[in-house]
Amino acid sequence: MSDTAIDPRYGTKPPKRPLRLSWGDERVRGIVYQILVVGIVGSIAYWLFSNTMHNLEVRRIATGWGFLEREAGLPIAEFLIPYDPTDTYLRALQVGVLNTLKVAVIGIVLATILGTILGVLKLSKNWLVSRVVGAYIEIVRDLPLLLQLLFWYALLQGLPGPRQAIHPATGVFLSNRGLKLPFFEWEGPHNWALLLMLIGAVGTYFYRRAARAKQMADGQPRAIWPAATVMMLVVPLGAWYAMGAPFTPDIPALRGFNFQGGLTVSPEFFALLLGLTLYTAGFIAEIVRAGILSVSQGQWEAAEALGLPRGRVMNLVVLPQALRVIIPPMTSQFLNITKNSSLAVAIGYQDIVSIANTTLNQTGQAIEGIAIIMVVYLTISLSISLFMNWYNSKIALVER
Amino acid sequence: MSITTDSLPVAPRLAPALSVGWLGWVRANLFSSWLNSLVTIALAYFIVKYAIGFVDWAFVNAIWSVPNDAAGRPDTSSCRDNKGLGACWAVINEKHRFMLFGTYPYEQHWRPAVVCVLFVGLYIVSAMRRFWRMELALIWAAVLTVIAVLMWGGVLGMPYVPQERWGGLPITLILATFGLAFAFPLAILVALGRRSKLPAIKALCVLYVELIRGVPLISLLFMASVMFPLFLPEGMNIDKLLRAQIAIILFAGAYLAEVVRGGLQALSKGQYEAAEALGLSYWQKTGLIILPQALRLVIPPLVNTFIGFFKDTSLVLIIGIFDLLTAGKTAIIEPMWQGFAVEVYVTIGLIYFVFCFAMSQYSAKLESELNHGRRR
């Protein structure tokens, strides 16, 4: 009903003036400008396109996507899905995309953890701690990432060979062949246990939502951890036990000139992950610090005055407000990790850029190769942006 | 008796010795609790331990020069024996001219050296607030012209040096500075276009910005190195450095446009309305009222973006352009110098760090000054 109280003059749009065919009419000018700009950009694009077509013809470069079905014949050192040089280019490119995603996802998780810890430590009241963290942040932010990657790679290559490997704990070896870690042999029941654990995580999420809704109704907080433990730990472990509890440790050991067994982290992947994580953590630390500082001291004091213990003050009052400031710049850092993982090509980790580059060198089809790289990154960037925008709108301040 | 003592002025009691002066500072900032004391001591131990280790490696055990062998080539065996114990700065001693200036003719090295000094001078002048006016654009044009003349030569008795011979630090500075100089006007146009009321222009600008920001710089550099030659008519060719420069300009333009757009949005609506009320045309309004205020607002983030580009120019290594990092990497290709990458990267890192650290400190100082003015 309050709508009627608004001055009616603001409610109606101004009457639409008929278009006058004159330079004095703003809308006519607008249309002419747009036609001009679009025309110029379009004709430049057409000129480039026709040149390209002509050049392709003159140089007898094949076009089209037929090469994807041909045998790649390019060796790939690391793959998540089975791959052999006799497979097609399409398969090789899929392997490359998965390698990019692998380093990007692990890098995002590690950089977020390390960056958050550093951001909190930078605010420490201990002068020495905050200065040391500050120096770290300044150094990693002021050096080119490529230089840092080359540096880590050179350091890893300078490590002793397998026979003199650095051996800090049982089954852990660090040598110029990379990092070796103990693992266990992955069998069928492990898949089922992992699946049950994921289902348990989803179940916990819904249980938590229901518990929150009940708390909103009657004000009684309910503990979530018993249900979470049962769903995410007890059930999967029980299933694993019921299926015979298979567990064969796989510990790397030196045989001859190299290691056998265990998990291998190649020097290329290790250097790339190390460089990306340490570099991005420096930026994330600054974002986290700014986010925490953006919550005013009054919020802390008010929450403490309500008698909330310190942990709950952080969880219920400060963090939700800090996150609103943190999420948007954090999104761009996640995008940066993904895009920066393309520097892998400089140290020989075979990500999508490296494999597409080899493909375009072998086939000579530059346009298709570059197009593949761009489409892959645009898709990944868009997915991360969409997800983070969804998350951001979920935690955004609900205003009147 | 008690009366006399009461009437005497009594000096105020001193604060406890442990809460004032440097002792008080140490107690409050380093040893405020058990946990804090423990952390301080542990951290100090590691800092001292690693600092000593570093000083041993970098100075005490370091080898600063190596003798030549019978064939007249440097004999690096002493460095190899010393590996892991001390740095081999001899590689820098031997290769520093190559790292800084690449394959530029040796006796002409004063020219790229002057170019580097000119670039630094240009940055310093641009950083001074008294020069923030239209004349700065003229200074940039003049200095960049002098730099081009010095690098190419061919006039005033300086022999001509083809672009293929350029390398090292001047290439890094050229890519970053020319990139900024050309990307900045482009960015202003795109930012204005993105806020335009004309749908077609807006769509073009959004497409450009989002497309470029969605892909890594490497893909643009690859495009520059393998696809640009296909774009041009037959017989017309532009060299590799220029192609990379165009890619960097396109890339920087998209990022700078977003920074400038932030400034345009931060300006209060009243400024736009007041300018319109005065009857100014679009370009008068933009040039006289909006841009001078909006650009001033975004100078600190502009400097930060510039630091990013300065670091990102190192990516041209991947398409084989001879910038500072490539020169460093090439310097250690010779068999006798192989394995001394760490020393070279530390040195190059130091050069990058000096530039970026100076710019980031400047940006932080500027931000607090500008904020100070607004807060008053």
Key features of this structure:
heterodimer; A: 400 residues; alpha+beta; four-stranded antiparallel β-sheet; two-stranded antiparallel sheet; 13 helices; B: 376 residues; mainly alpha; MetI-like fold
| DSSP, total strands of chain B | 0
> From the alpha-carbon coordinates, what is the Rg of chain B to the nearest angstrom?
28 Å
Separate helix tally of chain B: 16
**So what's the overall shape of chain B?**
flat
Radius of gyration of chain A: 29 Å
State the CATH class of chain B: Mainly Alpha
Mean pLDDT of chain A: 85
Detail the poorly predicted runs of chain A: none
The CATH topology annotation of chain B reads as MetI-like fold
Note the topology.
The complex is a heterodimer of chains A (400) and B (376).
Chain A: H1 8-11, H2 26-58, H3 89-122, H4 127-141, H5 145-157, E1 166-169, E2 172-175, E3 178-181, E4 183-184, H6 188-218, H7 225-242, E5 249-250, E6 253-255, E7 258-260, E8 263-265, H8 267-294, H9 297-305, H10 310-340, H11 344-347, H12 352-363, H13 366-395
Antiparallel strand pairs in A: 1-2, 2-3, 3-8, 4-5, 6-7
Chain B: H1 2-7, H2 21-29, H3 34-60, H4 77-81, H5 90-101, H6 110-127, H7 135-152, H8 169-194, H9 199-214, H10 217-231, H11 240-266, H12 269-277, H13 282-297, H14 299-312, H15 324-331, H16 341-375
Helix pairs in contact in B: 5-15, 6-7, 6-8, 8-9, 8-11, 9-11, 10-11, 11-13, 11-14, 12-13, 14-16, 15-16
